[in-house]
Amino acid sequence: MAAGNAPSAHEREQIIGMMEKEMEYRVDMFNKLTHTCFSKCVENKYKEAELNMGENSCIDRCVSKYWQVTNLVGQLLGNSRPPM
To answer: Can you spell out the DSSP letters for 11-77?
Structure first.
């Protein structure tokens, strides 16, 4: 950073760019998670306005597994070796 710990205009642009990429990544990941778990757990014919117990359980498991895999892939890509 520049003198006085204040970021220069170029550094601010880089920071904002990184923040935008991070936000895009998170929105994309959320959309994929939502689409994947909804299509696996909810029937195409809606019989009720609310999710039933089976659908709720399926969605809970699906989201949990999705996050576990996402974290594992992140670790593998970040470390270039399997986690212990």
So the answer is: HHHHHHHHHHHHHHHHHHHHHHHHHHHHHHHS-SS--SSS--HHHHHHHHHHHHHHHHHHHHHHHHH
